[in-house]
Amino acid sequence: MAGLPGARSASPGSPPALDGSFLLSPLGGLMGAQAVLGLLVWSLIAATTYHLHAAYGWVMFVSLFFWILTILFLVTYLLQLHQKFYMVPWPLVLMISNAVATVLYLTAFVTSAAAVQPTSWRQWDYNRRAAASFFAGVTMIIYGVSTFFSFRAWKGLGSNAATSQVTDHV
Q1: How far apart (Å, rounded) are the C-alpha atoms in residues 63 and 96?
Q2: Which of the chain's termini has less CB crowding within 10 Å, N or C?
Q3: How far apart are CA 71 and CA 103, in angstroms?
Q4: Which one, of 50, 77, 47, 84, lies nearest residue 146 by Cα?
Q5: For the whole model, what pTM was predicted?
Q6: DSSP letter string over 94-117?
Q7: Burial class for 102, CB neighbours closer than 10 Å (0-12, 13-18, 19+)
Q8: In b/e form, how buried is each residue of 19-29, taking b as 16+ CB within 10 angstroms?
Q9: Looking only at Cα atoms, what is the longest distance across the chain?
Q10: Any stretches that span the bilayer, and where are they (predicted)?
């Protein structure tokens, strides 16, 4: 948000303001992609008989947990709440969350891809599980790229929405 047109600075006492320019930043665009792809992964798995296969329980947990967490981060940044809670090291929190999501999505992708069986008696389950495996792999890559941008923001390299949370509140 630093240097972006329309970026506003929220003071601790002001009401939350919607920051639409956040979605145009690399971090905002990646969060939006994570939310959409994560929704695809867990909804495709939920549309199958995943409860009959223990492996898909793990995929469902990872995708749903990080989808909710990503939505919470997205709302936090869109409403500029990260500036109200300036004592939290948001770039570090976001980097750790993205790194953990990358690793766990890797395990979910491998688990989901290994559990897809083309000889399934329900063809639509096979198609949905295969699509969920593909989207889990893409989501893992998006979280990895987001980890890179979060790392740069944490180290102060480059300018994106995560770096603008540092203000003089002392």
Answers
A1: 17
A2: C
A3: 19
A4: 77
A5: 0.78
A6: HHHHHHHHHHHHHHHHHHHHHH--
A7: buried
A8: beebeebbbbb
A9: 64
A10: 21-45, 57-79, 91-110, 130-151
